[in-house]
Amino acid sequence: MNYDAITNRHGLRHDPFKAIVAPRPIGWISSLDAEGRPNLAPYSFFNAVSDNPHIVMFSSSGWKDSVANVEATGEFVCNLATWNLREQMNQSSAPFGAGVSEFEATGLTPVASAAVKVPRVGEVPIALECRHLQTLHLTDLEGAETDRWMVLGQVVSIYIDDAVIRDGMIDVTDLRPLARLGYRDYSVVDAVFQMDRPKGGGGEASGA
Ligand SMILES: Cc1cc2nc3c(=O)[nH]c(=O)nc-3n(C[C@H](O)[C@H](O)[C@H](O)COP(=O)(O)O)c2cc1C
Predict the structure, then answer these.
(1) How many domains are contained in the chain?
(2) Can you give the pLDDT at residue 133?
(3) DSSP class of residue 85?
(4) How many CA atoms lie within 13 A of 129 on its CB side?
(5) pLDDT, tens digit, for every residue of 128-153?
(6) What whole-number distance in Å separates Cα of residue 30 and Cα of residue 82?
(7) How much is the average pLDDT of 178-203?
(8) Among 39, 93, 180, which is best to mutate for testing ligand 1, by the most ligand atoms less than 8 A from CB?
(9) How far apart are CA 133 and CA 56, in angstroms?
(10) pLDDT of amino acid 59
């Protein structure tokens, strides 16, 4: 099949787009509102977009609290959503009112970060502390404004639980990070394989 992705008449049961661009890592974004109240929500339109400097982004469908908070305070933290925290991660996406702490609602522990005022999730083994770079108001091919907002931040400090470091490396199969697929589907990273880079290969910086 082939279909026009602008009119999006795919004829399928659901829009397959998010099932196609998958797996997506989940940025579990903590932030503070202007009054200093903590907020926590998962974003799967999330990724690293640069490794030097370390830059990450998350994108919001609508002007949600996380975007408003980053705009207000200039900081956020990306907490790694892992298999053992899948229920809390999911619960934290519920539409709590602005100013209601998802930390309290889900029983998670806000722990002081090293370099930003925004707390990280105490139960997560890895967290990226970020300062806001810019928020892009996304436009479409016609130049029309969408209700989509992409927040970019530079990572200024990284927390790693020493227990997840083995031989100087992070054992990802032990961490079991969650990934979002389409529909109601998720995946978990619990198996890896290695490949050597071709000689002279450029582009993505060396993973080693
Ligand atoms: C796994 C998962 C991934 C999500 N990814 C996104 C996303 O990329 N963008 C978005 O706008 N909402 C996403 N959501 C929904 C938000 O988490 C939800 O709207 C939340 O209430 C937003 O919280 P906030 O207003 O405190 O930022 C996702 C939900 C889940 C469970």
Answers:
(1) 1
(2) 99
(3) G
(4) 16
(5) 999 999 999 999 999 999 999 999 99
(6) 15
(7) 92
(8) 93
(9) 10
(10) 98
93 CA to centre of ligand 1 in angstroms: 5
| Tens-place pLDDT, residues 159-182 | 999 999 999 999 999 999 999 999
Q: For residues 70 and 43, give the distance between their C-alpha atoms in angstroms, rounded to a whole number.
A: 14
The residue whose two tokens read 């990724």 is 47
Q: Could you please report the per-residue DSSP string of 119-181?
A: PEETT-SEEEEEEEEEEEEEE-TT--EEEEEEEEEEEEEEEE-GGGEETTEE-HHHH-BEEE-
Residue type, 105: A
pLDDT above 70 covers a percentage of the chain that reads: 96
Structural domain includes residue 12: no
Evaluate the omega torsion of the peptide bond into residue 53 and state whether it is cis, within 30 degrees of 0: yes
Is position 143 within any domain?
yes
- Domain contains 40: yes
Range of the domain at 93: 17-188
State the CATH number of the domain containing residue 163: 2.30.110.10
Tell me if 9 is assigned to some domain.
Answer: no
**What distance in angstroms lies between residue 203's CA and the mean position of ligand 1's atoms?**
31
Mean pLDDT for the chain?
95
Residues near ligand 1 (Cβ within 6 A): 26, 39, 41-45, 59-61, 64-66, 90, 93, 95, 180
